[in-house]
Amino acid sequence: MPKELILTGKVQGVFCRKFCSDNAKKLNLKGSATNLADGSVKVIIDTDDKEKIQEFTYALKSNPYGFRFYGEIDRIDISDYTGPISGDYVF
């Protein structure tokens, strides 16, 4: 089952969606990222592999690959997701 991640912090207008895409591609993951009206970013990752989700969230928090990102992710809330993999930024 895909996972929905809600990223909060300084995540809009700072290349966050591209940053999510770059990290996902590095980990061979597919998904999407969308800016939400409350200033957060919703990321849908098309996997139920717990290790891959853990790797992805670690990459978002620590940027081990050095991708361009000018923001800061304070919190990542993860939940199961049912629905289409769609959004502003599909990867």
Structural summary, described in words:
- It contains two helices and five strands.
- The protein is of the alpha+beta class.
- The chain has a five-stranded antiparallel beta sheet, covered by helices on one side.
- The model has no long low-confidence stretch (mean pLDDT 97).
- Strand 2 and strand 3 form a beta hairpin.
- The longest helix is centred in the middle third of the chain and has 13 residues.
- It has a single domain, classed as 2-Layer Sandwich (Alpha-Beta Plaits), CATH 3.30.70.100.
Secondary structure layout:
Elements: E1 3-10, H1 16-26, E2 31-35, E3 41-45, H2 50-62, E4 72-80, E5 89-90
Antiparallel strand pairs: 1-3, 1-4, 2-3, 2-5
In brief, what are we looking at here?
The chain has two helices and five strands. With 91 residues, it is of the alpha+beta class.
Radius of gyration: 12 Å
Straight-line N-to-C gap: 17 Å
Number of structural units classed as domains: 1
Total count of helical runs of at least 4 residues: 2
> Could you say what the CATH topology is called?
Alpha-Beta Plaits
Structural class: alpha+beta
Query: How does the major sheet shape up?
Result: 5 strands, antiparallel
The fraction of residues in strands falls at 25-35%
Mean pLDDT, nearest integer? 97
Question: What is the name of the CATH class?
Answer: Alpha Beta
Stretches where pLDDT is under 50 for at least 5 consecutive residues are none
Shape: globular
Helix content percent band: 25-40%
Strand order of the largest sheet: 4-1-3-2-5
> Can you write the helix and strand succession as a string?
EHEEHEE
For the secondary structure, the number of strands is 5
Named at the architecture level, the CATH assignment is 2-Layer Sandwich
